[in-house]
Design goal:
The protein is mainly α. Helices cover 58% and strands 0% of the residues. The longest helix has 15 residues, at 51-65. The protein is elongated, with a radius of gyration of 18 Å.
């Protein structure tokens, strides 16, 4: 409930209130992937790429399958086909590990909603190429968890330092 969250944040934090007024409504709800596999797949494909490059590769990737693929479809796709759409060898291994874990039941996507935040992070970070940051983004943008703050994200750390006019970079505890 983004409206309720905005109201609560505006009441409790004048800095956040002013930022929300300056930048308008949160557009995150409109950009979320509803399918957890597709969200994780996109997270891997997009790593260390510009938004435009990531979108191009993701569109080519989906084009191989006529839309978002299933883990089983990806597993039978050759490395050569995956490279041809722009995936590096490293990302191919990450995508294959994700698909293998889903197929083997080691990553039960349907159970993630009922897990605690830390359980989700633990489950997702077992996949090669998915670290804590990606797991926290998944918690926020796919599972809509309201109390997640990726304190290791340099962009967030610097933004908080600037917004709150802090002389030093805030520690994770301070954040």
């Amino acid at each position: 409930d983004y409206l309720r969250a905005r109201r609560m944040l505006a009441r409790k934090d004048p800095v956040i209130r002013d930022l929300m007024r300056a930048h308008g409504e949160c557009g995150l709800a409109n950009a979320q992937h509803t399918d957890p596999f597709h969200a994780l797949l996109r997270a891997i494909v997009s790593q260390q790429l510009s938004t435009k490059a990531a979108a191009t590769i993701a569109a080519r990737f989906d084009g191989l399958y006529g839309g978002p693929p299933t883990p089983a479809q990806v597993m039978v796709t050759s490395d050569q086909q995956l490279r041809a759409v722009g995936l590096s060898g490293q990302k191919i291994s990450y995508v294959r590990d994700l698909c293998r874990r889903i197929g083997d039941g080691l990553l039960p996507l349907s159970a993630l909603d009922s897990m605690s935040d830390e359980e989700v992070v633990e489950a997702l970070t077992q996949v090669k190429g998915i670290g804590r940051w990606t797991a926290e983004m998944f918690l926020m943008f796919r599972l809509h968890r309201p109390d997640v703050l990726p304190v290791g994200d340099l962009g967030i750390v610097k933004a908080v330092q600037k917004a709150y006019r802090l002389r030093t970079v805030p520690t994770p505890e301070r954040l």
